[in-house]
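> Could you send the Endonuclease MutS2 prediction when you get a chance?

Sure thing. Input:
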Amino acid sequence: MNDKALKVLEFDKIKEELKKYTTTSAAKDIIEELVPYDNSYEVREHLEETREAFQLLVKKSAPPFEGLYDVREGIGRAEKGFLLMPVQLLRIANLMRCARRFKDYISHKEEEESFRVIEDICAGLVPIKKLEDEIFTAIVSEEEISDRASSTLYNIRRTLKDKTTSIKSKVNSLVRTYSQYLQENIYTVRGDRYVLPVKVEYKGSVSGLVHDQSSSGATLFIEPMSLVTLNNEIKELRLKERAEIERILQELSNKIYENIIPVKNNADIIWELDFIFAKAKYAGSLNGICPKISEEGRFDVIQGRHPLIDTKVVVPNDIYLNEGITSVVVTGPNTGGKTVTLKTVGLLHIMAMSGLMIPAKEGSTISFFKEVFADIGDEQSIEQSLSTFSSHMTNIVKIIDNADENSLVLFDELGAGTDPTEGAALAVSILENLKSRRTKVVATTHYSELKAYALKVEGVENASVEFDVETLRPTYRLLIGIPGKSNAFEISKRLGLPNYIIDEAKKGISKDTLKFEDLIQSLQDKNIKAQKDVREAEVVKEDAIKIKSKYEEKLKKFQNIREKATFDAQREAKRIIKEAKEEADKILKDIRELERMGYSSDVRQKLEENRKKLKENLEKVESSINKPNKDKGKELKSVYEGQEVYLPTFDKKVIVLSKPDSKGEVQVQAGIMKINVKLKDLREIKQTKAEKKEIKKKSINLNLKQISSSVDLRGMDAEEAIYTVDKYLDDAYIGGLGEVTIIHGKGTGILRKAIHDMLRTHPHIKSYRLGAYGEGGSGATIAVLK
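Output:
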């Protein structure tokens, strides 16, 4: 890709925005070298990796980049066998931990969506847990080595601590002894040796070694002779400590050297992952989508937006090049948005071909071009003595020398800067030449000759930027298929120019020209209405599809609930029967005890009879539960909608909602559930007119319990919150909610962690994430139900 197009279309600004989302400078360096890829396969793969990273951010929140630094310098030193500092070792250990955690981050259940490209990238990560643990065990912080790093270091520091305690006791005693000679009744340290601040006039009264003098000269820092030996011992221990620390660091550095290949490989992959997730985060900020890639030279950007214009003011536009069309000629007034349209087309293509998601609507298509050429802006050069026209033409000559059928060419004000007649003729010739090569061209112009050229030449299409005559302001909307109307008369009239002057001006224009301008206006109005109708139809269609999917999902949930409810009911009934049997046996046992204490054998016989009757009754109940009564009513050969029938499987009256399908199944309403059952499993029931009327009334007034879409846990402890959420999720699942909000507050994060641990294994939960801006942020969790 030529550098001029990348500069003119401001791809460097996109890369600067992208860098803001990286964690390491290594990823920033990758972005700095980013250019469009050479073939469509690479484009698709890099777009897919961005899409997968975006999905991971949505489903699993932020990737495990905590504590990650750019450690290329440290790895380079280790590769040469040099000693690494604690900070370098610690950061390399953080890198290894990040690589290991990424393996867990991308893992998923078999039935869940996979992330093919990122999983392939992460397949090269090699966990080095043992070395990672050794470094974290040995190094406490970037400047401190742990006592646990080695037994030798532990013993040295323990001895050093004892010696320090001893010398502090000794020096405190000397402070009291020599207090009259001291500047202050304290001791101090000079060069790791404990000394006393002696007044200079009493230097002979305190025998010892002078280590320093105050800036005023009034104080000498003397090490008493009685402390020399202890200070020497402490100095020796500190030297041993330093030597042991260097030995530990050298040992860890050697282990890094021994594992340098997997460490370097992990680092390269982590830098790449940092770059990929930066692309995903940037896509989120743009509300970007992953476009389809065409290789036929056609593109269709739906509601595309320029990524560098504020989202609050940018006007989305549909920009497309249909099959069979090689050139689009855009006309319209100055400041109408023609140049922004050109830059949007070029920049979105460059972004997509660089693996970046683009700010547009789903379904957009981008074409793969080997080259994008752009002649945009004022190219006047004083240094080279080139006029605007000459400079533009120099650039156009280069484009014509290199453009082919795999190129996209963007011309801004083609042919401008010279005589209008000659400029228009030259512009037509350039477009015709590029058209013969099947080069794809989008050009802006003010020349009417180019409008006519686009109307009469096959493969060339007109377009215009809309202008509101009522407000005298551009709308910045692109209208493809319609040439721009000058609107000079209408604008002049609204600005107050007398009608007789405008009428006189119209006489100087041929009737055919005026008719052509009126035809343009008519086409423009019809096109605007048609586009509005299409957009509204698309919105209605999307809503209908969403509603259909929602109710299909609800039906599936109800069918699952039916099976679960049946199983739970049978299990609960068995439990009740078992408890009743145990209770009866206990009562009988207690009565037998009473019998031994004085009751007669007749009483015992009656008790046994009652126990037997109780057992028989319980067995009958149990049998009726395990084997539903299918004999109630006769089988039905046909049913009609709204008919009440008996369903033996549930031992329940249900309402028929549909006629039998090809499989012989009908849909029925059982309580809050809609389920499909076989026609042969239904039984007829006899009803009075009053009962039918009551059933009809109930079926009409059927209303599901309203379940709130959120639950507030603030103020609860973890145990109470988990119980509340569990019960709420059961209600939400049965109520058919697809997504719920769990409000736990920010605080220390303990409650949030407890809730996330529960959601991770909860049977009703499909996925969960922290709330976005406007959803409560980190103080709320959004859970998606199965």
